[in-house]
Specification:
By secondary structure, this protein is an all-alpha fold. The protein folds into 2 domains: 4-31 and 179-249, Endonuclease Iii, domain 2; 35-176, Hypothetical protein, domain 2 (Endonuclease III, domain 1, Orthogonal Bundle). Helices cover 56% and strands 0% of the residues. Helix 3 (40-48) crosses helix 6 (71-79), helix 8 packs across helix 9 and helix 12 crosses helix 13. The longest helix is centred in the first third of the chain and has 24 residues, at 4-27. The chain is elongated and about 70 Å long. It binds iron/sulfur cluster (SF4). Iron/sulfur cluster binds next to helix 12. Residues 192, 195-196, 229, 233-234, 239-241, 244, 246-247, 250, 252 line the site of iron/sulfur cluster.
């Protein structure tokens, strides 16, 4: 006989299985998925060059992600290098000229030269030319302060920078309040959570509550996998369930 207790326990086991499948999926997310780009070669630059990564992160304001992550590649194409020492020597006017020639531009293109100048000054004057020193051996709070000191960077980007650094580089900050870090639901995450049977509605509050139940120690850790699954397999129409990495645990609720 099925008891209320056994239903609860089955439900708990299912939530655990789905959560684990999503966390496993996050680990296998490739740079191309973490950094959507307009040109395939652009993803490797932001994934391997901390200065390129920092430029894109600081410019991430109101522009589509695939344009933002392509900008460092575009700068490199236009200048013939992405050397912080050489960019440090450029005047604001020269940087403005560079941004006006880019194929892929940030939304606030008039602010971008000052943003890049501030970032580059930090990289050269405080990090000996190595942008990774912005975060290596630092606490998250310190890293956020550094990003916040850059023109045009607000708390949202500074927080995002810390999360992206952990995903893109072998860094783990020990001073993040992870239980309070939620997912940022978008059309993909809301749809996937509903179809997985984890949220009751395809809606923002339901999605946030679902991930808090699933992974209370760090709800936001599920974000990348949910987003990637939505973008690559769980289409609004004709989802590719047979290729989806979480198919075995999915409720396939349509
Ligand atoms: S198995 Fe199908 S319905 Fe479930 S998340 Fe994957 S694509 Fe979506």
């Amino acid at each position: 006989m099925t008891t209320f207790g056994s239903i609860l326990s089955q439900n708990h086991d299912r939530i655990k299985a789905v959560t684990q499948a999503l966390l496993d999926c996050s680990k296998s997310i490739e740079a191309e998925e973490l950094f959507p780009v307009m040109v395939p070669e652009a993803a490797e630059i932001v994934a391997t060059d901390p200065y390129a990564f920092s430029i894109a992160t600081c410019l991430d304001r109101g522009t589509k992600a695939d344009i933002i992550w392509t900008i460092p590649y575009d700068i490199k194409q236009k200048l013939g290098h992405l050397d912080p020492y050489l960019i440090y020597k450029m005047s604001l006017e020269e940087l403005a000229g560079l941004f006006s020639r880019l194929t892929y531009r940030p939304r606030y293109v008039n602010d971008a030269p000052r943003t890049v100048r501030d970032l580059t000054r930090i990289v050269i004057e405080e990090c000996s030319g190595d942008a990774a020193r912005i975060w290596i051996g630092k606490r998250a709070a310190e890293v956020k302060r550094t990003f916040l000191s850059i023109y045009g960077v607000g708390p949202g980007i500074a927080n995002l920078a810390v999360l992206l650094i952990e995903q893109a580089f072998p860094i783990r900050f020990d001073d993040l309040d992870r239980p309070r870090m939620d997912i940022k639901p978008d059309v993909h995450t809301k749809r996937v959570l509903y179809r997985l049977g984890m949220s009751e509605r395809e809606e923002e509050t339901a999605a946030i509550e679902a991930t808090r139940r699933m992974n209370p120690s760090w709800p936001g850790a599920l974000d990348v996998a949910l987003w990637g699954i939505g973008r690559h397999w769980c289409y609004a129409n004709n989802p590719k369930c047979e290729q989806c990495p979480v198919s075995a645990v999915c409720a396939k609720r349509f």
